[in-house]
Structures are given as C-alpha cells and as structure tokens.
Amino acid sequence: MRNGLYRVHFQTPLGMGAGVVHATDGKMWGGDAGLYYVGSYSTEGDRLTAVVSTNRHTTHNGITSVFGVDKVTINLDGQVSGDSISAKGTSPQAPGLSFTAELSRVSD
Q1: How many Å apart are CA 81 and CA 48, to the nearest integer?
Q2: Tens-digit pLDDT profile for residues 64-94
Q3: Whole-angstrom Cα distance, residue 7 to residue 11?
Q4: Residue 61: its pLDDT value, please?
Q5: What pTM does this model have?
Q6: What is the DSSP string of 18-32?
Q7: Sequence-distant contacts of 104-107: CB under 8 A, at least 24 apart
Q8: Can you tell me the mean pLDDT for 38-55?
Q9: 16: exposed, middle or buried (C-beta count within 10 Å: 0-12, 13-18, 19+)?
Q10: Distances (CA, A) of 96 to 67, 90, 93
C-alpha cells in the first residue's frame, strides 16, 4: 500500500457508504459525512491487515453507520493490487455482521 489519499467504498448488510482515507507509513485516518476513522495497517507482499476505529463527528438525520452503532473497531484483511485494495472485515461491536471495503488511491 503506497502512502497517499484513497477513496473508500464500504458496505455491510445494513447499508453502504463512501469516504476518504489517508494512509502514511502504517497509520491511516479519514472519514465521511458523519464518521471519522483512525487506525493502523501493515502489508506483507500483497496482503494488508488493518485495525480501524470509527466514531461520530457530525449528527444529522439520515447519516448512519453501516454497523448500526457509531463507535466500532474494524479488523480488516485485504488484497493489494497496484493502487487498489479489496478488504473484508469484522467488528466485535457488531458480531456476525460482514464488512467489505474497496479502496482506490486518488492522490499523494
């Protein structure tokens, strides 16, 4: 995973969303219209592992978390292919709920 700004599209069975994530030297942070994300990642070859925590920054009707709760920790495992990443994850705060994310690098 190269350092830079990534767009992210994600979903669970409860809904879907999109935002941006900035990744630099093993740390990542970003957000969308209602939530922010902070975490860390590592890569080995074409495999990515990450742990990302979310929390709400703006309350507005219609802006909901795809987990059904705002404050979650997501454990991710992904495949890096050039400047794209396809990942799956789970959260202990939303047991049994599958999570997928697609990231694409958009800028340095």
Answers
A1: 10
A2: 999 999 999 999 999 999 999 999 999 999 9
A3: 14
A4: 84
A5: 0.94
A6: EEEEEEETTEEEEE-
A7: 104/6, 104/7, 105/2, 105/4, 105/5, 105/6, 106/4, 106/5, 106/6, 106/7, 106/20, 107/4, 107/5
A8: 98
A9: exposed
A10: 11, 8, 10
